[in-house]
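Fill in residues.
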């Protein structure tokens, strides 16, 4: 009989196996100072490419003022209790109404956390008779929701429409036996690769097959579309998305999330989502602060324009210098590395220590086994100088990679 904990000690993952050296540097780093394009890491100022603060709202003066005044007026306790029992307010409902209108849906429901919310949505919607068809690179919150739900599930190859249709056909045959329905789940923007989901193409198949579509648009909300309403708006198919989900943790630089759709189905979720029914309501300062963030997101398109100016400059320069950034068509900017963990950690250390460039190193289990990327997130706060310094550093790194100048060992950075 094996000790329960023994398997964890044997398999800690790509970076976890180097926990004694990685902790505080590659994993669980501490960024200090004002949230922005430059922050302090281990006592030195660095250009920061690791914050999902797309529109720069985290430290916007109007946001800080709204947060402060709401905290002074309401405190963090109000309202007390779950919303269904004693934690509702006019402000919560106002935010829901404004979000629904912004993403062109009848109704919306606030969620305390994006990750927790999506996990609970999947579990709430799907019974043992239903079938879920989902993209292979769906975010962990979707996968964990599927683990909780008793439904059948078929996965289709990432953004592969031929395989998607194959799985829909399988699902259609399954529900003839079970009497259930089909839920398709994909993402507006895939958070690591940066490519948009094939929403328009999937929506076009709704007339051929009988399914409902749930889209996780965490990275598209606020960054894509003529008004910033997300990937569905960008691709001209928002009306065909049955349930639209996003978090406040990206463009809104806050906490929480929402699910939007037809009034009847959102009403069902409002009265049946366990993660919300049994959780304390979002505190008033967060709700009021999110109202201000949404106002700025809607009324200041120049923030989104600046974001895309930086995105286009950074991505074009990386490609021009021979880096593989995949098929991204969003602000998410992956740089694919072909060496192993040692080379990747040496490279990342070089960037941070010698060029003051801080970007995240991503390995399994965040991305599939065998892949390693540097992930850069341009924001409206970044400057042309930030990008120039970064590209200068990457040019040197390219030379070192081509000439295999990085030591084949884990760097000693603690």
């Amino acid at each position: 009989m094996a000790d329960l904990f023994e398997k964890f000690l044997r398999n800690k993952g790509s970076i976890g196996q180097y926990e004694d050296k990685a902790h505080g540097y590659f994993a669980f780093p501490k960024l200090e100072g004002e949230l922005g394009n430059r922050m302090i890491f281990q006592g030195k100022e660095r250009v920061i490419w690791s914050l999902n603060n797309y529109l720069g709202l985290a430290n916007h003066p109007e946001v800080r003022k709204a947060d402060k005044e709401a905290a002074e007026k309401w405190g963090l306790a109000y309202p007390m209790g779950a919303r269904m029992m004693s934690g509702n307010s006019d402000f919560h409902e106002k935010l829901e109404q404004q979000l629904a209108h912004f993403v062109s849906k009848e109704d919306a429901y606030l969620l305390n956390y994006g990750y927790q919310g999506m996990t609970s949505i999947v579990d709430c919607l799907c019974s043992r008779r239903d079938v879920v068809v989902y993209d292979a690179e769906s975010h962990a919150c979707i996968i964990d929701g599927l683990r909780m739900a008793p439904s059948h599930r078929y996965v289709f190859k990432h953004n592969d429409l031929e395989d998607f249709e194959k799985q829909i056909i399988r699902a259609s045959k399954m529900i003839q036996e079970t009497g259930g329905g089909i839920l398709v789940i994909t993402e507006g923007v895939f958070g690591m690769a940066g490519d948009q989901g094939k929403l328009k193409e999937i929506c076009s198949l709704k007339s051929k097959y009988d399914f409902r579509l749930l889209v996780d648009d965490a990275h598209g909300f606020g960054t894509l579309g003529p008004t910033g309403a997300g990937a569905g708006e960008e691709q001209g198919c928002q009306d065909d998305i049955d349930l639209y989900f996003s978090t406040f943790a990206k463009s809104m630089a806050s906490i929480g999330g929402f699910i939007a759709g037809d009034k009847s189905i959102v009403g069902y979720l409002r009265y049946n989502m366990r993660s919300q029914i049994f959780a304390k309501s979002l505190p008033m300062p967060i709700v009021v602060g999110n109202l201000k963030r949404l106002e700025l997101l809607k009324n200041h398109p120049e923030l989104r324009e600046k974001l895309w100016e930086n995105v286009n400059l950074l991505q074009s320069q990386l490609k021009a210098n021979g880096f593989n950034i995949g098929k991204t068509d969003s602000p998410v900017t992956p740089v694919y590395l072909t060496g192993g963990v040692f080379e990747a950690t040496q490279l990342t250390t070089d960037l941070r220590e010698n060029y003051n460039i801080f970007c995240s190193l991503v390995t399994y289990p965040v991305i599939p086994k065998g892949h390693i990327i540097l992930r850069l997130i341009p924001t409206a706060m970044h400057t042309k100088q930030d990008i120039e310094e970064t590209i200068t550093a990457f040019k040197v790194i390219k030379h070192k990679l081509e000439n295999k100048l990085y030591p084949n060992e884990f760097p000693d950075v603690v």
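The mean pLDDT is 94.
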